[in-house]
């Protein structure tokens, strides 16, 4: 194989000196021919024009960020064939490579690394930017310290609207992996996972599927192995990062004041020189609950306080869950012989709650989809909204109004369990958003009398759905939605070569198409006959369709085959 030396402006590199590869790029070790300084040169072929938004985003973000623990951007060039991004060269690789080499790092070295990452996060926070993909592979190591790199997914908080989640599931915060929501504390969760992995050699939550990962995050307490030993201060820091509720999770300003970070940094081993973090009193803006929501933050004790709730039972549940530690333990009064039945109740409730989240996400994504068939988008949003309202109302009545809608045999016993309080609080905190989603489309129907008359005259089948869920009609409408949306996607994807790459926007579209097809299967399998909650809970895998995965042309072709059979049915 022959190698060549390439020159771009005052930079030079050899095609054999590859130090990294990305989805559409290759990173080379290069040199500044004027200063003789080593640099990293990322080369992106312009044929990947669909990646331009990500590339431009990375350049724009790095241009804004100036910090000793942020990868330094020197220059960027665009030629007829390529885009070149010139950054500082980190000769000691990344943190992921170090973990492969050493397994894990001793506490003093791990703390030194975390201090520097926090410095970098603080610099981002000053610009109101979140990284969204913090993990060991994106932490580079140089002689002068740690550098946060790979800002392709980074964004200012005020530009995050209806985002699909990105990054690596093991490091994603719960609100991201479950609800595709980001906030100023999403990176803090990733930091906690990363810190744990650096100390012990593996992440705190390990799972084979996203569904299993979500279950463990929501139901397992953080535990620490005895070997290697770590201090209680370190454990507390990690716990504060890995609080499921983002409003209770510490923010960057609070982490800077944590005893672990305020202490003077000790010297670390050769591959990293830790620096002290400069604490600051400046407040970093973060997302807080909307004032219209029935809860607010209390800065004095960092707990959520439920306010202005008319229902005393709701008030009691949330106060118990959010303002005490009673939800942390297990109920010693659990009757062992009834445990399987209680676990079955939890499984059924969780599956219905997951379906609510799934439907809510679909509704938000449908807003941005432009279809050819008149009113098809509107019809589908109404269908999903009515389905969401039906499920959430059933769960609410089961939990709060003592109306045993699910006909659970041991419901009263379950209500005495901590699992009841945990699930109820989790549902109630989301129910507000579900209610808003449903109200938006119900209001649209109520206020548009001409539309209702039009449905009554020209679409009598759909007119029935305005008054109840007619599943045969719904199945037909969702089928039309899938076929039409698939047609739109197919026009923009070249499937002639399995090696072709799928860009980010296409990944999102195909993922959404998968969700729609999955919903069609749910309707066909479970709702066209008497709905069996237990069977649905045991067989459905909703969570796996709520995470954006990297898809290949072959994945899309398999989906198209399913849709092709659907068209013939």
From TrEMBL:
InterPro entries, per the entry: Atg1-like, Prot_kinase_dom, Protein_kinase_ATP_BS, Ser/Thr_kinase_AS
Binding-site residues for ATP, renumbered to this chain: 42
Residues in Protein kinase domain copies: 13-261
GO BP field: autophagosome assembly; regulation of autophagy
Kinase keyword on record: yes
GO molecular function terms noted in the UniProt entry: ATP binding; protein serine/threonine kinase activity
Annotated segments matching region Disordered: 272-296
GO CC annotations on file: autophagosome; cytosol; membrane; phagophore assembly site
Protein name: Protein kinase domain-containing protein
